[in-house]
Specification:
The complex is a heterodimer of chains A (279) and B (301).
Chain A (H helix, E strand, L loop, with lengths): L2 H35 L3 H6 L11 H9 L2 H32 L5 H9 L10 H10 L6 H25 L3 H9 L4 H30 L2 H6 L8 H11 L4 H36 L1
Helix pairs in contact in A: 1-12, 3-12, 4-7, 4-9, 7-9, 8-9, 9-12, 11-12
Chain B lengths: L1 H35 L2 E2 L7 E2 L3 H8 L3 H34 L6 H9 L6 H11 L6 H8 L16 H13 L1 H12 L3 H9 L4 H28 L4 H7 L12 H10 L9 H29 L1
Antiparallel strand pairs in B: 1-2
Helix pairs in contact in B: 1-13, 2-3, 2-13, 3-7, 3-8, 3-10, 4-8, 5-11, 8-10, 10-13, 12-13
The chains are: A mainly alpha (279), B mainly alpha (301).
């Protein structure tokens, strides 16, 4: 072996060492959380690093049977799906106008929307809360749908406009000559071509909406209307000393987004970098 | 004529839903906070005009001034720590991942997993793990024979904020890793090969090729971190309560804004006008910060 290959091997070893150490740092807390959720509280103290033996499902039983956990889950799903659908419909229409219609102030309209990426919506919470109280939407899931839809529009428009600009004009021009209506062009030509970008935009907005804690905290104070993050906080406060149950609460809240992310990671990474790396 | 009128009709039809929803429920409420900062009053709608009195109160009167200066200091400190623990370390990880190794994709996915979780959930996980009495972290230190390192991680005011910054970094490190690896992957192979033939070292490659090309992405990651850190709330709420325990050592703008505007369980007195003032100060800091970082990262390219 030459001096150079030895150097190469040691540097490779070092690279793997750092990456594996960081992987352990990522996995260890999550793994311990899951293991502890399957133990009785006493076993968590006595053998914090041991495997649960026997596996104790009691914590999850308490959570799903006594705490009505599935209804929180349903709330999160309803809010997320309706908000995403609104974002996709509104943002693809607006992106189509921005990307394909040349009009005065086109660039300004785009900037107007993109501004929203830089300013956290929570700075407007006071007025948002006032409006929902006046509209009688305080303590209603619809309030969350509206606020998340508004919050997701800037990113939706950023991602979709980028894709729409790349669609060649010839297709819609040909359809226009054939007498296809403007609405028809949008629905039959643009939307199908846009569908991969629609997935990216939806996935990009999925996590901030599913994971949001701020707006449920401020806008929802009925327990049965809690979304998962709010329900987690409420249950956490209510069962401060039942450690097995606490770990089960966290595990139940953590598994779905992790599974979703691993399944959709391709789209996440695309969405996350689409704006930045393009320029 | 009909054609242009028709075009204008469709243009409006397409733009209006997104524009109205976004303006009414996002842009205007943020601007309303600036307006409410000039008003005071009981209840949720401050209706008595007081000019800049709220700002005077926040900047000069006890105890508001002390809380304000404290969150200002803490928030910048927190941002600086996250820049190191999350973004500088994320940069190192991105460089390692892109060094022609096996499993680079798997590492990237793995490092992003915590980012898929809600910040409150991450905060609660570490609240349990770092508990001084039965937290797994101190037990692990003990079983490794590292008892000297055992601390009250959440109860010691000198280390509570760095601990919070590390938890934030654990949570969000996937973001810089993904951004930086995408940037490094976009660098042309020829450029890197040529520099290697010219005998440029790894350090030289990082300094003279990777960092200059990544400057705009470094700018974006810094902006995202700045905006996120100066509106952060969840991690403090879940690990240290809305008071930024212990002794306000983890109090940052998001927590102060929440307490002032909506009250808390212990102290239900709320002051919406002053809350709007804090939101306005946050807005100004974020605006100035973003502008400065943008200018700086543009100048470097």
């Amino acid at each position: 072996m030459t001096h150079n290959t030895i150097k190469k091997i040691t540097s490779k070893t070092l690279i793997y060492l750092v990456l594996i150490l960081h992987s352990i740092m990522i996995i260890a807390p999550l793994l311990l959380m899951i293991l502890s959720s399957l133990k009785k509280s006493r076993a968590i103290f006595q053998e914090p690093f041991g495997l649960p033996k026997p596996v104790h499902w009691g914590n999850f039983e308490k959570l799903f049977v006594q705490q009505n956990y599935l209804s929180y889950f349903a709330n999160s799903i309803i809010v997320t799906l309706f908000a995403l659908a609104t974002i996709i419909v509104f943002a693809s229409l607006a992106s189509y106008a921005i990307g394909k219609y040349s009009f005065k102030g086109n660039a300004q309209v785009y900037t107007f929307f993109i501004l929203g990426l830089m300013i956290p919506i929570r700075l407007g919470t006071i007025n948002i809360m006032q409006m929902f109280i006046t509209m009688d939407l305080f303590n209603k899931l619809l309030a969350l749908v509206i606020v998340y839809a508004a919050m997701g529009i800037p990113a939706g428009i950023m991602i979709l406009t980028g894709f729409i600009r790349d669609i060649p004009d010839e297709l819609s021009d040909a359809a226009r000559i054939d007498g296809c209506s403007e609405t028809g062009i949008f629905i039959r030509i643009i939307v199908p071509l846009l569908s991969p970008a629609i997935v990216v935009a939806a996935v990009y907005n999925l996590m901030p909406i599913w994971n949001d804690f701020w707006f449920p905290l401020v806008l929802i104070n009925k327990d049965q209307l809690s979304t998962i993050p709010l329900a987690t906080a409420r249950l956490f406060g209510k069962h401060e000393t039942d450690f097995g149950l606490l770990y089960a609460i966290l595990t139940a809240a953590a598994i779905p987004p992790i599974a979703l992310f691993v399944g959709l990671s391709k789209y996440f990474i695309k969405g996350l970098t689409s704006g930045a790396v393009k320029g | 004529m009909i054609r242009t009128r028709k075009r204008r009709y469709y243009l409006l039809l397409y733009l209006a839903p997104a524009a109205i929803l976004y303006a009414v429920f996002m842009l205007i409420p943020i601007l309303q906070s600036l307006r409410y900062s000039l008003f005071t009053g009981r209840g949720l709608v401050p209706d008595e005009f007081v000019g800049f009195d709220n700002y005077v109160k926040l900047f000069t009167q006890f105890p508001f001034r002390d809380r304000f200066i404290n969150v200002l200091k803490n928030n910048f400190y927190y941002f600086a720590l996250v820049m190191v623990f999350q973004n500088a370390f994320g940069f190192v990880l991105a460089i390692l991942i892109t060094r022609k190794i096996k499993g680079s994709k798997q590492f990237k996915t793995l490092f992003f997993i915590p980012t898929a979780l809600s910040a409150v959930i991450v905060g609660f996980i570490f609240k349990l793990v770092l508990n001084p009495v039965w937290g797994i972290f101190n037990i692990a230190l003990k079983s490794l024979g590292l008892e000297v390192l055992i601390r009250s991680w959440l109860g010691d005011p000198t280390i509570a904020l760095p601990v919070l910054a590390i938890v934030t970094a654990w949570h969000n490190i996937g973001i810089p890793v993904i951004f930086f690896t995408a940037g490094i992957d976009s660098i042309s192979v020829d450029l890197v090969e040529a520099s290697r033939i010219d005998g440029v070292s790894v350090w030289g490659e990082i300094r003279h090729i990777i960092i200059p090309i990544l400057a705009p992405i470094i700018g974006i990651v810094t902006i995202l971190t700045f905006v996120g850190n100066f509106s952060e709330f969840e991690i403090v709420y879940s690990m240290q309560s809305v008071y930024g325990n212990p002794e306000y050592s983890t109090d940052i703008f998001g927590a102060l804004f929440y307490r002032t505007t909506f009250g808390s369980q212990v102290n239900s007195v709320n002051d919406v006008g002053l809350g709007a003032t804090i939101a306005s100060v946050m807005f100004i800091i974020i605006f100035l910060g973003v502008t400065l970082i943008q200018r700086f990262s543009k100048r470097r390219t």
